[in-house]
Amino acid sequence: MRRLLAFGLLLALAWAQTHVVAPGETLFAIARRYGTTVEELARLNGLKDPGRIRPGQVLRVRRAVEVALPRGRALYLPPVQGRAFGLVVEGYREGQAEFLGATYPLFPQGARLLGLLPVGALAEPGVHPLRLLLDGERVEVPLRVAPGGYPQETLRLSPALEALLKDPGLKAEREKVVAACPKEGALPSGLAFRLPLSGRITSPFGVRRRYGDLFTSYHEGLDYAALEGTPVRAVAGGVVVLSERLKVRGEAVVVAHGAGLCTGYWHLKERRVRLGERVQAGQVVGLLGSTGLSTGPHLHLEARLFGVPVDPAPFFAGLPLP
């Protein structure tokens, strides 16, 4: 078994997806779009100076790795700290995947099994085992988690906001948000996020944040700046599994899209959907505001996969599947 897997890894095949550089694009923006890193793009394309790319240049942006299995094969996108990655297994009828201490379902789709696995933003970069249980057969594959390359920032808070961060109910609020997202449901086919509003991103996912002198954490979503009252739209269709006022997240809405994937819309001025309502992509779920732990009008868009916050940005290009 080990020899077979080692042979499969040594003969790993790569399928490259390409991107044509547009005027004004940076390698950092391209990396975020495809759920990879500047360092990986530079290695993949042999770039000596990542700051020098030109319009019209064709870049290889990511590659799926193939691993031979006893009765089939597995394809996966190399995992990156703070992002979801896709897994395809062929030759088996049912299975599960264990990675970074958690177990995730593999969903049948035709003759294949598909899975979306989260990598936490604080997961240790380096090699971690992916354990597959396929039709009762156990297989282990080593995966290397690449660093996310996240920046750092310090937020100065008012006394009122500092007091809010010290509230003992914050843990219960987080647990409520995580519990609201169901793990069941089919993997959404052809899903690609739409923009929630017309605004600019003021804070990307994963930024290491120091909150005054209290503690250091990381930013669990994307912040969009826009005028108060701007309509906020669902990035994809689904079912509203939470719609209420929370202490830190303010007026909040959570939409479940299936297969453990949910999106959260925080700090709204008001909510426009109710619990249990089925919404379509682009439907208004609320109005932008500054409620809860907020220093000004903005939308905090969050994506959670099986309860783990992951960068929403790659989902705008579609599901991160090989």
Relevant terms:
Glucose Permease (Domain IIA), 10-stranded antiparallel beta sheet, 43% strand, disordered N terminus
Task: Describe the protein's architecture and organization.
By secondary structure, the protein is mainly beta. It folds into two domains: 2-145, no CATH class; 152-317, Glucose Permease (Domain IIA) (Distorted Sandwich). It contains five helices and 23 strands. It has helices spanning 2-10, 27-33, 38-45, 159-165, 170-180, and strands at residues 14-20, 58-69, 72-76, 84-90, 95-99, 102-105, 107-109, 112-118, 126-134, 137-145, 152-155, 200-203, 208-211, 215-218, 221-225, 231-233, 238-246, 250-258, 261-271, 278-279, 284-288, 299-305, 308-310. The strands form four sheets. Strands 12, 15, 16, 17, 18, 19, 20, 21, 22 and 23 form a ten-stranded antiparallel sheet that branches. 37% of the residues are buried. Mean pLDDT is 85; it is low at 1-16.
The percent range for helix content is: 10-25%
- List how many beta strands DSSP finds: 23
Q: How does the overall form come out from the CA principal axes?
A: globular
The string of secondary-structure elements, in order, is HEHHEEEEEEEEEEHHEEEEEEEEEEEE
Look at the structure and give the mean pLDDT: 85
Low-confidence stretches: 1-16
Report the CATH C-level class of the largest domain: Mainly Beta
Q: Largest sheet, if any?
A: 10 strands, antiparallel
Count the helices. How many?
5
Q: What does the radius of gyration come to?
A: 20 Å
What is the end-to-end distance?
A: 24 Å
Beta-strand fraction estimate:
35-45%
CATH topology of the largest domain: Glucose Permease (Domain IIA)
